[in-house]
Records
---
Amino acid sequence: MTDFNTFLNQGWSDHAAEPAAVFARCQDATDLVEEPGQLAALGILAAHVSGEHLGRWDEGAAFLDSLRGHASYRSDEPSGRQLHLSKASLHLASGDGHAAERELAAVASPEHHPASPRVRMLAATSAALAGRGRTAQAMTLFEEALALAAYDPPASDPAARALAVTGNNLAVELEQAPDRDAAGTRLMKTAAATARRYWERVGTWVNVKIAEVRLAHTHLAAGEADLALARARAALSLCDEQDAPDAHRFYPWVAESLALHALGERAAALLASGRAERALATMDSDQWPGADADYESLRNTLAADSGAEHLR
């Protein structure tokens, strides 16, 4: 019989390609839950796939409501408050603000700033709406979350991680938005910078490196190649400090190459691309899914202006 951790890991692995199937599996997995933390983790996965990936907000909220009848539910513990928070986010995304406020009232904790639950709800909902292509609404909610987070959440406050995750996700969505205006570009940069700031507070050096690479791509999308180059090289410096293997340098080298290309430094861009190619040869495709496609995209970008013969 599958244990809960195996189920959860497989669910996160499969969720992007098979969100409906993963949501169905969540509804059949309650018997695997043995303690409160697992119940909260099941709720987070179910809320993510039912909301951000499927837009089935009400179904997700109904499932989370059913989890309150589970033997592991504890309303006065962080796991129980997390269930209420996930449900509040689903209600807010569906447009039911009253239901969202009702759930949010159960999330307050004396351990954290009074604004923390609302910051987390707004951040989670912003990420979900961005994933559904509702970028304007996502931007509004993220700006509200940032305003409420003026108290500067410490690492011990879950709002700090929520801002790190949402900042990254929103920056990605805005980078790809074909109709992004000047306000969207400003928020894109703010979102990426927010992710970088809070990942340094709550994450590992790898999280910070990834956030630096995200900032590089954000600046490229904003037409700021010089700033993009600085962020890519900051990511490489982190790798140097950690004496990291070249696999960790692949994405910083890709970003560096793109920035140099945008600056018209063709030879240097090709040099960085070559380093990325050599790093790619050391990478396990299971651990680094998408790296091959990302390198091919880099090659195509460089070839568009440089001529394919330079990349052989």
---
Amino acid sequence: MDSLRGYDRYLAYIERLIRDINKHLPKNRKTLAQLLVEKDPWVEANDGNKIYFKKSELENVSKIVPRSFHGKVMLPI
């Protein structure tokens, strides 16, 4: 019984560790089309911070990706 409780604590520790490791990753993604119309394009990270995109880089990507896919390409990849 004690070993099961120890295992549960171990799993909880691993879950916290993974959550801490991934807190800088995006919570959600936006389409290229959405980001292109924003003045300061950004997405929210798991920790609540903002991940900003350079407008010039989005414009470069928009030249490479066909316009018909601007509403389908989700960033960040």
